[in-house]
Structure formats: structure tokens, C-alpha cells
Design a protein that fits this description.
alpha+beta, six-stranded mixed sheet, 21 helices
Length: about 600
């Protein structure tokens, strides 16, 4: 395997990634033109069952973060809707079942997809404050089971895939456990939604939502009207156990902690959403770079024709896209490894890291794919060319499993209150260091992080007369969010530099080092004023920054195609993009 592919996909690429790359190259996953929204949704479910047939052990897939995120990296490229419902079934539904007591449950129908699973947490009136949800599951002493109910319109479960499309479905419903009038907090309840023919069961009310501009999924609002559930419906664990006689015990005295433990699979979901974004971003960059080499335009002399890639104005944004995408991929690899090794002692720190990475990766994916779409011109707008539709679908990852701005705001508060200790400044004077020195660039990015940390902490500590807690936080949040962004950028840059050091060939090592240089220099240039003011850059270095960036771009440009090829896009999908069939003419070969 080429060294750049090893750097991107790791030593287990053949086991983790190649099966999905091969599957999604096959004919059933080729793009279908002219389908309605419902037809695309039905196709997504049929494709999901093909995916499930290719899974040798669903339980092992769900239990292993590297395996599950690998599936997401490739699924989104083939079918955004299929990737979405796969994430719901495997991660949120099966993952939650397996994370709770399940020894006496028969999960075979879900492993075989005889019944599909979905996950109902968010309510129409409770999104980012889901802990305040209203849905109730009341313990019924007469039957020994529960009664599931939606007490208001605002309590209807919002956007889950609960329609009759896709066949028989069950759901994990987040609801408040009520015992003798006492609220014990939010837990999950396994709830049948439909019969084997997909018809909704009595008491289950489902209404289709308007079509979104994102992935083709059967989004609905769902309400429950005094639906009886057996005692076994409650998902139990150390965070909460209920005896048949109504006795309740929990290792967590705080109902909010019980809620977070119940929906703990959302953390893994953040990794899955990041992985999805990475896959579609790499694919978009690969298409745009190929197009830039294939498409010819007028040169600088009469009669001359040159590839678009020849022009600095065209290849600079694509090289920036390559650098960002490599950094994002390698950051994700690092975060997945840390999550897989995490223990209860460092779980909170790791969960914050996952949230920071999810926000940064999915937002950068939007930026990169937008640039790739533009560099492909009008052809980039065609759904068949593999960018525009994926760009729209990526919006879902920005909101799913925790809205980016909300989870970053939470991370920012934690980082200011002891969750981050900034690195100290280097003792080497900046005039003695080079802007092409990788470690100097890393030190400068750490300086940026420290500057925003100090700025935000100062604002948080400043007490203004008669200021409320909200007013103090509002005065703090802007630099605090800058801190989160700087932290993510430094970690991504660090992951890219680490990969260069471990590269298996000198050529790959140099390319990765140059990609790191471009990525890090962009971060330094964006904050050069602060770095100059703090004495971390000299005036001459600030003036030199544009020239140094230009020199790195010149070094990287001849290798853009090679770096894009390392993304290993499924050939079957590439063959279906009309934009890549052109031989330099102004029109693409019809699909």
C-alpha cells in the first residue's frame, strides 16, 4: 500500500476500510438520476440491508469504534440517506441496547435487520435542552409494565425515521420514568412501532415532516398515546435499575447524569458524524483535483491550452483543501484511538475532545466541499458529480448528535474552568527560528491557543457592577469559542505532523511535512497580529509569511494528484461522475 494511504488509513486499512470501499464501488450503489424523495428513501433502506449482509458480526461492528467509524467514512459517499439510517440503527439503537443490560434480550432480529431500529430523543420543544423532555413512561403497578405517553404537542419526538418506509421498526424512546408520581429521570424504553408489514401499532401516531435539503430520510414527528409496554422495555444498568415491585436504585444520584448515561451512545455518534463528513470531503477533494487536471482552458499565450491546475488561483484553494482534509482525517484517527483507550478516569476529557473534533471537522468539511463545488464550476452543481448533494447532506452532521455551536460552547466553558492547561511559551526567541520549522509552527499555534485562553479567562473573571451570570458569560463566549477553534486547529496540525514523522517513505514524509507547513502557516497567518503583539513573531516574520506560504504551495502543487489519489475513492463511484469523463472539452459525457 502506498505510504500516503498508510498514513491516512493505518495498518488495518485492508480489514477496516477496503471491504466498504469495494462494496460501495459495486453497481447497487451507483448514483440513480431522477428519483423522487420517497424513491431515494426506499432505495436507502434497500441499500442498508445490502450493507448488513456484508457485516460479518453486527455486535462486533457496534462495539468497535474504529470499525463503526470506518463504515461511516465510506457509506456517506455512496448514499447520504443510507448512511444516516445506518448510523441510527447500528450506533444509536443497537449500540444503546448493547451498552445496557442485554443478556436476556434476543437481539437477533436487529442483527439480521428483520426489524429496523430507530432512536427517539429530541422533542419538538426540546432539542439542545433534551434533558427537559416531557415524554413519560409511568410504572403501572397493576400490570407491572409502563404506560408511554406524549403529554403535549411540544413533547412529540422530532425528526426520527419512524415512517412505514423500510419495513417493521422498533424504537428506543427516551422518556421520564415516573414511579408513584415521582420523576426518576430520563431512561430509554424499547418500543415496537409497527407490525411486520410496517403498519403503525395502536397508540403510535406518526406524521411525515416536510422534505429537507439534506439526506433523503423519512423524517417524522411521533407521538405516543397511552402505549402499554412490558417491564422488559426499560433499558437498565448501573445508572438505574428498577425491581418488579417498583423499588428503584441508581449509582448516580443526579437525574441529569442518569440521562447522559442513558443516551451515552450520542458520544460515539459524534465520532460517526465526523467520520461521515471526512469521507464525503475526501471524495469531493478528489473529484475537484481530478477535474482541475483534466479540464483545460486558455493559457497565457495565443493558442495555448493548459490544465486548470496550472493556475495558482485555482490550485491554491485546492491545496489548502488537501491540507485541511489530511489534517482532519488524522485528527479523527487520533481521537478514535483515544476514545478506544479511555477509562472512567479520563472519560469526561475524552468526551469533550470528541465534541471539539466533531464541530471542527464537520464545519471544515462544509468549507472544503463548498470550495470544491466552486472549483468545479457549473458541473459541480450536478448531483451525479458527487459534491453538491453531499455538501447539502453534510449540514445534517453539523446539527446531529449535538449542534456544533452548543457543544463547542459547553466545551469552551469546561476548558476555561480547568479542562485545559495551555502550553507554556517557547523560551527560544522567535528571531532564532524559521517559519519552515515544523515545531516552531506548532509552538506558534500553541501561542494562539494560550492567547485566547487568557483573553477569555480575563473576561470571565471581570466582575461588572450588577452584572448577571448571563451577562458575564456573554462577555466571555466570543473569545472562549475562539479558544476552542484554536485548540482544534493545533491538535489537527499536531496529528498531521505526527503522521509525517511516522511515514513509511521519505517522499511521503516530505509531502506530509509540507502539508503540515501549509496548514499550520494558515493558522499562524490568521493570528499574526496577536502573535506580533505578544512578541511571538517578529515584524520581519509577519512580512515574510505570504512568501513562505507561496513557497510551500509551489512545492506541493506538482504532487496534488498523488495526494488526492491516496484518498482511494471507490472506483465504481468515480466512474459514475460525468465530470470525470470529460477529456478537456466544455461538456461532460452524459451519465
Amino acid at each position: 500500500m502506498p505510504a500516503l494511504q498508510v498514513a491516512l488509513f493505518g495498518a488495518q486499512a485492508e480489514q477496516l476500510h477496503e471491504p466498504w470501499r469495494e462494496l460501495f464501488s459495486s453497481a447497487p450503489f451507483s448514483f440513480r438520476e431522477g428519483l423522487t424523495h420517497r424513491e431515494r428513501t426506499e432505495l436507502a433502506y434497500r441499500r442498508l440491508r445490502l450493507v448488513n449482509k456484508a457485516v460479518p458480526d453486527a455486535q462486533a461492528l457496534v462495539a468497535d469504534a474504529a470499525s463503526l467509524t470506518a463504515l461511516h467514512e465510506w457509506a456517506g459517499v455512496a448514499d447520504a440517506g443510507m448512511a444516516t439510517i445506518a448510523s441510527i440503527h447500528y450506533n444509536l439503537f443497537l449500540g444503546s441496547l448493547l451498552d445496557h443490560d442485554h443478556a436476556e434480550r434476543d437481539l437477533t432480529p436487529y442483527f439480521r435487520m428483520e426489524r429496523l431500529g430507530t432512536f427517539l430523543c429530541t422533542e419538538q420543544a426540546h432539542g439542545n435542552d433534551a434533558a427537559q423532555m416531557e415524554t413519560t413512561a409511568t410504572f403501572d403497578r397493576a400490570t407491572g409494565g409502563f404506560v408511554l405517553d406524549t403529554p403535549s404537542d411540544g413533547a412529540r419526538k422530532f425528526m426520527p425515521n419512524t415512517s412505514s418506509v423500510g419495513g417493521a421498526k422498533d424504537a428506543l424512546v427516551a422518556a421520564r420514568l415516573i414511579i408513584d408520581g415521582e420523576d426518576k429521570g430520563v431512561f430509554l424504553f424499547l418500543t415496537p412501532l409497527s407490525d411486520p408489514d410496517g403498519r403503525h401499532l395502536p397508540g403510535v401516531e406518526v406524521r411525515d415532516l416536510p422534505e429537507t435539503g439534506s439526506a433523503p430520510v423519512d423524517h417524522c414527528v411521533t407521538a405516543f398515546h397511552d402505549v402499554p409496554l412490558p417491564f422488559s422495555a426499560l433499558l437498565q444498568g448501573e445508572h438505574g435499575r428498577l425491581r418488579p415491585d417498583g423499588g428503584f436504585a441508581s449509582s448516580l444520584g443526579n437525574s441529569r447524569k442518569r440521562f447522559l448515561r442513558s443516551i451515552g451512545r450520542v458520544t460515539m455518534g459524534k465520532l460517526c458524524m465526523s467520520a461521515y463528513s471526512l469521507g464525503v470531503t475526501r471524495h469531493a477533494v478528489g473529484i475537484a483535483v481530478r477535474h482541475a487536471h483534466n479540464r483545460h482552458t486558455s493559457g497565457m499565450t495565443k493558442g495555448q491550452r493548459v490544465p486548470l491546475m496550472s493556475y495558482r488561483s485555482h490550485h491554491t484553494p485546492l491545496l489548502d483543501a488537501l491540507a485541511t482534509t489530511y489534517a482532519a482525517t488524522l485528527l479523527h484517527r487520533s481521537v478514535v484511538r483515544q476514545w478506544s483507550r479511555s477509562t472512567e478516569a479520563d472519560r469526561e476529557d475524552c468526551e469533550r475532545l470528541i465534541a471539539v473534533a466533531k464541530g471542527w471537522i464537520t464545519w471544515r468539511a462544509r468549507d472544503v466541499m463548498t470550495e470544491c463545488r466552486e472549483r468545479c464550476g457549473a458541473q459541480g452543481l450536478a448531483l451525479a458529480n458527487g459534491i453538491a448533494g453531499q455538501l447539502a447532506a453534510n449540514e445534517g452532521t453539523i446539527t446531529a448528535e449535538g449542534d456544533n455551536l452548543v457543544i463547542w460552547t459547553k466545551a469552551a466553558g469546561e476548558m476555561l474552568l480547568g479542562g485545559l492547561t495551555p502550553k507554556p511559551a517557547s523560551e527560544t526567541p522567535p528571531e532564532d527560528r524559521s517559519l519552515r520549522e515544523p515545531q516552531h509552527l506548532q509552538d506558534l499555534l500553541a501561542d494562539v491557543e494560550r492567547i485566547w485562553h487568557e483573553r477569555a479567562r480575563t473576561r470571565l473573571r471581570t466582575r461588572r457592577a450588577r452584572s448577571s451570570p448571563l451577562e458575564r458569560w456573554n462577555a466571555t463566549v466570543t473569545p472562549a469559542l475562539k479558544l476552542v477553534d484554536a485548540h482544534a486547529h493545533r491538535l489537527a496540525s499536531e496529528a498531521l505532523l505526527s503522521a509525517s514523522a511516522q511515514a513509511t517513505s521519505a517522499h511521503a514524509r516530505q509531502l506530509l511535512t509540507d502539508l503540515h507547513g501549509l496548514f499550520a502557516l494558515r493558522g499562524v497567518a490568521a493570528h499574526s497580529g496577536d502573535l506580533l503583539a505578544q512578541g511571538r513573531l517578529t515584524a520581519d516574520q509577519v512580512l515574510d509569511l505570504p512568501g513562505v506560504i507561496e513557497s510551500v504551495i509551489a512545492d506541493l502543487e506538482p504532487h496534488a494528484g498523488e495526494m488526492a489519489e491516496a484518498f482511494s475513492a471507490p472506483q465504481g463511484l468515480l466512474d459514475g461522475h460525468p465530470i470525470l469523463h470529460a477529456d478537456g472539452s466544455d461538456s461532460a459525457t452524459p451519465a
